[in-house]
Design goal:
With 362 residues, this protein is mostly helical. It folds into 2 domains: 22-250 and 303-345, no CATH class; 255-295, no CATH class. It has helices at 2-14, 25-55, 66-86, 89-95, 109-115, 122-144, 149-152, 183-211, 216-221, 223-244, 271-276, 323-345, and strands at 248-250, 255-258, 265-266, 280-283, 285-287, 293-295, 302-304. The strands form 3 sheets. Strands 3-2-4 form a 3-stranded antiparallel β-sheet.
């Protein structure tokens, strides 16, 4: 027993338990990718969960709430610890990682915060990569949850945001509000969760290829990978349409302010004005000439979302007139976000994209 205790003390003093035994670049790369994958899943899961609850009026917000923030912080601690136990400084050099987190000399906002981080040790590099990944994932969350984009990005959707990489095209800005637990809220929940699954699976396919020695070009040219990514696109559309049907993306959706008994209504410029006047907001309706709430005409109900795809190399982005267009925007945005994250995780053979989501992968 005494000998065992002495051995434990010796190991603790020497720091042997917290450092890898020898250089292993391939093992280090795998650890970095696997731990960042876990971080990404927790980061997105906690934000999606919070935003869904807020939309359904179960919590007041803002999101991410304290629970999401704490869970993400705990995952970051584990990420740094596990990368530090598997990697050496020599591994980082062999893999081509730069000794700095300054991946963009012109960075501003949260990206400038990431660029200022050190990255000369395995733990520092892990935090550096997680910072850039978090900025990209926050941008994606703001894209998916259009009616909470300002909240997700803490007041700014451009390069001044303290949490999000900048969205390219944000005009017209969708109405910022909770969508409720009806059809709008259920459709938004599907968009959020489907988009989350989509970006995770896209990155997983290409990370696997990269760990096997593939470059960005060879991984994207691989016919098996192309088939998998195409199938993921089909599944994304099917999941969104299952809940959203033929809804039409619209920055502002109609409502009727019902007042008093029956179906009588009054004119109200905003939902807040209706509530302040003591009225009851009825979505997907309008106040007709008889001062009664009537159903909105048309083959498809609207969903509060972007009218043009917000991630694009030129503005306005692609016009979104159908749920198929919306799904295509989610797919293009997921591809662009994944490409931005992968090029930092694989510093050799994975150049960052030029900025256009179209054809980013396929």
């Amino acid at each position: 027993m005494r000998a065992h205790i002495a051995a434990v003390v010796t190991i603790a003093i020497l720091g042997i338990s917290s450092h890898p035994a020898g250089a292993d670049p391939a093992g280090c790369q795998k650890q970095i990718i696997n731990q960042l994958f876990k971080f990404k899943k927790v980061f997105l899961k906690m934000r999606v969960k919070c935003l869904d609850k807020q939309n359904f009026l179960k919590i007041e917000g803002p999101c991410p709430d304290d629970v999401a923030t704490a869970k993400t912080a705990a995952t970051l601690v584990k990420l740094k610890e596990r990368v530090a136990t598997r990697c050496t400084a020599g591994d980082l050099v062999a893999l081509g990682y730069p000794p700095s987190c300054d991946f963009d000399a012109a960075a501003t906002g949260v990206e400038a915060t990431c660029a200022a981080l050190p990255a000369s040790t395995p733990a520092e590099l892990a935090e550096c990569l997680a910072c850039w990944k978090g900025a990209e994932l926050s941008e994606f969350a703001a894209t998916l949850y259009a009616s909470h984009a300002i909240e997700v990005c803490q007041g700014a959707l451009d390069s001044t945001s303290a949490t999000c990489s900048p969205l390219d095209c944000t005009t017209p800005l969708p109405e910022q509000r909770n969508l409720g637990d009806g059809g709008d809220g259920l459709c938004q929940k599907s968009i959020g969760r489907s988009g989350f699954k989509h970006v995770v699976k896209i990155e997983k396919v290409l990370e696997k290829c990269g760990l096997e020695g593939g470059s960005r070009a060879t991984c994207l040219a691989d016919e098996k990978n192309q088939a998998i990514l195409a199938a993921l696109d089909d599944k994304l559309l099917a999941r969104i349409k299952k809940r959203c049907g033929n809804r039409i993306p619209a920055a502002e959706t109609p409502f009727c302010c019902r007042m008093g008994g029956g179906n009588m209504c009054i004119a109200a410029a905003t939902r807040a004005d209706c509530v302040d006047a003591g009225g009851d907001v009825q979505d997907d309706k309008f106040c007709d000439v008889d001062d009664t709430c009537a159903n909105t005409p048309g083959p498809g109900k609207p969903i509060t979302w972007w009218e043009t795809c917000p991630i694009s190399d030129s503005c306005p982005g692609a016009a979104l007139a159908t749920i198929d267009d919306l799904s295509a925007c989610v797919d293009a945005s997921a591809e662009e976000i994944a490409a931005e994250m992968l090029c930092r995780q694989f510093p050799s053979g994975w150049p960052c994209p030029g900025g256009s989501p179209s054809g980013a992968f396929l």
